[in-house]
Amino acid sequence: MALLLEVEFLAGFCAAATGPDNETAEWPIEGDRLFSALVATWGARGCRSDEAEALRWLEAQPAPRVRASDWSQRSSEMFFVPPNDARLDRGKKAADVFPALRKRQPRRFAVACPEEAVLRYSWEKEPEPAVLAALDRLARDTAYLGASRSLVRCQFLKGEDVGETPVRRWVYSGRLDELVRRFEAGRRPLPGVPVVAVGTDHTHEPADASPFAEDWLVLEHVGGAMPALLACALVARTIRDTILSGYRREGLEDRIPEVVSGHGPDGTASRKPHLAIVPLPFVGFPYADGRVLGYALVPPRETALLKDETFLRVLRRLAPVVAQRGHRVLTIATPVGTEAAQAFRIELAPRSDGGGRRSLDPRLYTRPATRFGSVTPILLDRHLKSNGVQRRAEIRQLVELACERIGLPKPIAVETDRHSAFEGAPSVYYAGSPLWTRWRLPKELASRQLVHAVLEFAKPVRGPVLIGAGRFCGLGLMRPVP
């Protein structure tokens, strides 16, 4: 038998950030934050000695394991909130006291939206009945975790070990006394210690991964008329051309790396993984309408492109700081003379974390999964030769080959369709549809077949999954299917 703690988030979300100055949501709740919540309840209940002993027993245990569902970060608006009151009388001014005159600081509040709003922690050692009863009393009186609006129901009980992965931070013997001392001194608690997994069971870790990295540079749409998702391949190509022009402006035209240009020294198309540019649309959620909220630069997994000083210098030159907005703005426009139907001029703001908006969170695409659905259709690598039933079998075979071509295992199931599995994503054009529903493609790819698909693998695969002939310009972008 093991000690279990069940935490249910009653409102269906968890309002907690990974740090005081961080806009990234925390899921699951880390062990040190959980322990601090129990200590706060202990203080509110009157600091009973038997409950203190139970907390000292818990802090001496090895780090628990936790089972948590998949999650995504909720989009959040920017709020402007007043800073803390001035602590010294001589530091106080009228602007610090009167509400109408107080300064405001921009803030976004991180919220995690899990698929299942229940966390289950487990410890290997079973406590004595008196200790279990004391811990359960504390858990039942713990009203929230994270922000005060993040209401919870907690319960300690005995049962089988249900944990899947160890928490990343836990506490140590003496943590209770340390929290008491810092509280009495009016100081914030320090974070717990990182958990070093020794002899970790790797059976839950996916062995296969796509050649694209999980660290993305998000470009949020902040100005101009954004073209529809149907034109994402043309916008992605324009973004790439803009980046290449930045190298030329820096006098580096003859030293543009293959990982950026996608071409070898002799000008031929590179056979190595290189920079992909993908759209980030509002799809897969209730009331999704498919509008594009931004784009992302997705480098190959085995490179450190987003840390390369030359690449960053080029981006800084292309995206100067706009004083009125307080951040950098990258302007993307089609060349002069482009026909009016395809001309556009948009403004993008580089963000390291997506700006707190749910649809801009790369984790929607990078988390491990066994089933992936296409957000943008897959561009087949060659023209189809069959008809009828044989044609559908040929499409499935080409999709399987597209997976193997980027180093993924062959899917155990491939479901193809004209429509995406995600609400709001445009379907593929077919005979009888209006011409304005056709996907806009670069000339060299315009004659290829497009298809939406859902892929199922035998074991979890680490994303992002980008497949097909248009994977470097935003097509074939896959997302885990719940």
Give me some keywords for this one.
10 helices; single chain; alpha+beta; 482 residues; Alpha-Beta Plaits; 24 strands
Protein model, in words:
The chain is α+β, with helices and mostly antiparallel strands. It has two domains: 2-76 and 111-194, Alpha-Beta Plaits (2-Layer Sandwich); 217-480, no CATH class. Helices cover 22% and strands 23% of the residues. The strands form seven sheets. Strands 12, 20, 21, 22, 23 and 24 form a six-stranded mixed beta sheet that branches. It has a five-stranded antiparallel beta sheet with strand order 8-1-7-2-9. A five-stranded antiparallel beta sheet has the order 14-15-13-19-18, covered by helices on one side. Strand 16 (321-322) and strand 17 (327-328) form a beta hairpin. Helix 2 crosses helix 4 (129-140).
Question: What's the short story on this structure?
Answer:
Helices cover 22% and strands 23% of the residues. The chain is an alpha+beta fold and 482 residues long. Strands 12, 20, 21, 22, 23 and 24 form a 6-stranded mixed β-sheet that branches. Strands 8-1-7-2-9 form a 5-stranded antiparallel β-sheet.
Furnish the topology, listing elements before pairings.
Blueprint (H helix, E strand, L loop, with lengths): L1 E8 L21 H14 L4 H11 L5 E3 L3 E3 L5 E3 L12 H4 L7 E3 L4 E3 L3 E6 L5 H12 L11 E8 L5 E2 L2 E2 L4 H10 L8 E2 L13 E2 L7 E8 L7 H18 L8 H4 L14 E6 L10 E7 L10 H10 L2 E2 L4 E2 L1 E4 L11 E7 L11 H4 L2 E6 L3 E2 L8 H18 L7 E5 L32 E13 L15 E3 L2
Parallel strand pairs: 12-23
Antiparallel strand pairs: 1-7, 1-8, 2-7, 2-9, 3-6, 4-5, 10-11, 13-15, 13-19, 14-15, 16-17, 18-19, 20-23, 20-24, 21-23, 22-23
Helix pairs in contact: 1-2, 2-4, 6-8
